[in-house]
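Hi there, hope your week has been kind to you so far. Thanks so much in advance, here it is:
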Amino acid sequence: MIGGVLTLFKTLIGIILLQKGPDELPHSSVLLLLVTGIWIAVGAIGAMIVDTYNGQTLLVDLILTALGFGLYAVVVKVFDRSERLLRALTAILGCGAIFGAALFAGRYILTTVLALPETPLFSELVLLWSILVEGHIIARTIDRQWVIGFLIALAVLIGQLQMFAALKPMLESAT
């Protein structure tokens, strides 16, 4: 069991470093559910650590993730690679959980342990890298060059930002 989790973690780190692709993950709906649970747990822990992150924010994250998955599913279907979708979604969520943990840990270490003022630079760098990683995952999934995957990931991000703008009044009314 522990060996399997370590192998999963190593594979996800390899994907984050753009050295591996989603094809190196097992084709398993159980694994997708496990990774989804980890992603939700990271979000819940982040909600406890970060004062501005709450249940409403987690709900918005779920909505934006569902939108992104829907858009990616359409792209994968258009490129006739539907059999690869499960691995792609598992990779995106797994890498997202690692990015989320890095964001929350980094923010906590910078502001609490090192007593430095909060800087958005760290968060922005992680966000930028996550877009590159999602592009890499999609490019490998649809057998296209990385720049095509990056442009698709950028388009999905723009769609998610539009949805976030539509949901922003809900967040503001909750605070």
Observations:
- The CA atoms of residues 56 and 173 lie 10 Å apart.
